[in-house]
Amino acid sequence: MEKDDFRQNTLETCQSNTLQGNVSIKCNQQPPDSIQNCPNSSPPFGRLPGPTCGHWVQREQLNSKIMWHFVRHWLRTSLQTLKLKGLLHSVKKQEYLTPAILQEMAKRFSCLENLHLEQTSLHSISYDCFPSTLKTLELSQCEIPMVWFNASSNQSRSLPKLENLMLNNVSSFSNHHLETVCSQSVLKTLFLSGTYRVTDIGIQKSLLFLKGLQHLKLQSCNITDIALHLIGCHLKCLQTLALTNISMTDAGLACLSSIKTLEKLWLEYSIHLSSDSIIAVCVTLPALNFLCLNGIFEGHGSIDEIKKKLPNCKVTC
């Protein structure tokens, strides 16, 4: 997908409020001599007014002591969005995030709603440790234990406000993880990319808790037409749907015609789809205004025919 794709569109929709406290902390490929403020760097959702925009630390310095320094002295109490990038795939691995740091963040940052973790090991961190104010949790290339997302015995939900869950190349994420987190949250956005352990069974068990889901992306998951049938039957509030590198056929695609609320649809690298089937489904979706067909009909005239049949829909490839 291009940069202005499913993720950007859904994030803009889900985070319609103006974010005024946004910080990105990561390791720099060519780090400065010491920790320093970088007023010209742009955090993922805008800039933090004043001196604290984005922070860059030396690769070898990203550890729990540095994080304590940021939490206690650099980050404002009005912080709303925080992005952290660790060193999971480097030779020198250091744990920079601990339960104590997360608990301190929960106390100090009552407005923290969006947390993005990249290349971070979460084996020593319980899901319960995350601030209960979070609405968006994004994990990219992170490691999680086999049993996670479980609420402790003294609470029914660990993150009661969680609405948006985005996972990118979290290889250990499984059907059990999916069912558990969906059963404890009222999700509006679910983004699963590179989670190859997720199968039709996981989708089936999770959809019972996703009646209000508005944005769904499934990329390189181990699902088939069965999952598409279930999605068509249960997710009647979907506004955006992205299916990338999924094993689906015309029969599975036909199941999506029942989602009348669908506005944006990505069908990428699904080589078994025919232009006639795509047209037949899309003409039944009255709200559809965007269709992406990357990697399907490159170099063929089928795109022109689809554009002609869908005059009110922007078709890209």
From TrEMBL:
InterPro entries cross-referenced by the UniProt entry: LRR_dom_sf (IPR032675)
Name this polypeptide is given: Uncharacterized protein
Gene source species: Hymenochirus boettgeri
